[in-house]
Write a structure and sequence with these properties.
The structure is a single chain. The protein is mostly helical and 199 residues long. The chain has two domains: 2-60; 80-191, Up-down Bundle (Four Helix Bundle (Hemerythrin (Met), subunit A)), CATH 1.20.120. 74% of the residues lie in helices and 0% in strands. The radius of gyration is 27 Å and the shape is elongated.
Length: 199
């Protein structure tokens, strides 16, 4: 009910904006001072409209701020391929940190941390999806493509097998799986080395 009221308010508010928008038939006798004042009023009105719309969306979301919108053209977001590559680099760095934690301090891992490790295995699986997309769009050599597909399948498989050691709280078993995963992702990056710059 709240959503429909807000939506109706926004629609009527937008209709009001259109009704008050100056037409293109402004007389040629309009002075530059009048034109500047008109533009300033329009800019102020547009800003007020944006603020009202943001407040309405915030109401719909239960008081939470509206999510920020990012556009590649505006320079506030990476293109899809670059974003996937960036996530994969971050995953490799995170893998190294997790391996160190599990290997060097296994006795310090509590239930909450084991739950986080289970979540990390899901992130590892999602990393295989990024690998698949990157390989599809950048690797054209048949042998390298085949090797990349094997790497993807391996990461998918071990991220699922990792549930066993996590459920048993077997730090050593998990460390072996994660270490092998790290090496496979490193191998995947090696396959990307000779990809031409223009791709």
């Amino acid at each position: 009910m709240k959503i429909s009221i807000v939506a109706t308010t926004l629609l009527s508010f937008t209709a009001g904006i259109t009704a008050f928008t100056p037409s293109s038939s402004t007389p040629a006798t309009t002075s530059s001072t009048q034109l500047q004042e008109s533009i300033s009023r329009r800019a102020l009105f547009a800003q007020g409209t944006a603020t009202a719309a943001t407040a309405a969306v915030s109401l719909v979301l239960g008081g939470r701020p509206a999510p920020a919108l990012a556009e590649v053209a505006a320079g506030t977001s990476l293109p899809q391929g670059a974003l996937q590559f960036s996530r994969l680099i971050r995953l490799k760095d995170d893998l190294k940190a997790v391996i160190t934690r599990v290997t060097e301090h296994p006795d310090e891992l509590d239930k909450k941390e084991w739950d986080n490790l289970s979540d990390f295995l899901r992130i590892l699986y999602k990393g295989s999806e990024d690998m698949k997309s990157i390989a599809k769009s950048t690797i054209y050599d048949p042998e390298k493509k085949k090797k990349a597909e094997e790497d993807v399948k391996y990461i998918q498989k071990v991220s699922q097998l990792g549930d066993g050691p996590v459920s048993k709280q077997d730090a050593e078993g998990l460390a072996k799986i994660l270490t092998k995963s790290y090496l496979v992702i490193d191998d995947f990056f090696e396959l990307l080395r000779d990809v031409p710059d223009e791709i």
